[in-house]
Amino acid sequence: MSPGGHLLTTVLAAGAGLVATGSVPVAVGVVAGGFLIDTDHLVDYVLVERRRELTPAAFLRHYNEGHTRRVVLVLHSYEVFLALAGLAWWLDSAWLAGYLAGGAMHLVLDIIFNGRLTPKSIFAFYSLGFRFAHAFDAAALFGTEPRVAPPGFWRSFLFGARLTRRR
Fold first, then answer.
1. Closest Cα to residue 25, out of 78, 104, 88?
2. How many Å apart are CA 18 and CA 13, to the nearest integer?
3. Which of 39, 97, 138, 153 is deepest in the core (most CB within 10 A)?
4. Is the pLDDT reported for residue 165 higher than 70?
């Protein structure tokens, strides 16, 4: 799903969480899990890809056009979610519960919308172990079919990438 799509759904979910629970920590957690979870893309961009062009446009273009070579994305993993669920239960943390709700929404939307971009199982992709077994190799995980992003930052932010050829 595009960053703009995640932002919109997260704002709606955080508002609904705030209304339903009256809890600001739950709403803040939903924002962290629904949108800020994507900070692991930035970590990969800088540490794994060793990219130094730190503008939002360059970062978005790198991902939307499929230039990624390695895909670690620690926060986008079932394993981290299970660990955080145990921690949330143990600590009885409203913030972590909100994070897990927002993150679960984020992953479900990614599975629905990003499944068209990968030849492998999109469900398996969200396992850190699966990505590790494929050496975090983006080509092995996503294939090599070229992608195209809409022109301009905002259109790309709102609509994301698509394959150049429809399957």
1. 88
2. 8
3. 97
4. no
Nearest to 96 by CA among 49, 29, 141, 8: 29
Q: What phi and psi values does residue 162 have, to the nearest 5 degrees?
A: -140, 160
Question: Which token pair is 165?
Answer: 């050829």
Distance of CA 46 to the CA centre of its chain: 16
Between CA 68 and CA 120 the distance in angstroms is: 16
pLDDT digits (tens, 9 = 90+) for 44-65: 999 999 999 988 888 888 888 8
CA gap 144, 68 in Å, rounded = 11
Which residue in this structure is represented by tokens 């962290």?
32
| Residue environment code for 47-59, b if the CB has 16+ CB neighbours within 10 A, otherwise e | eebebeeeeeeeb
Q: Which amino acid is residue 131, in one-letter code?
A: R
Tokens representing 64 are 């939307």
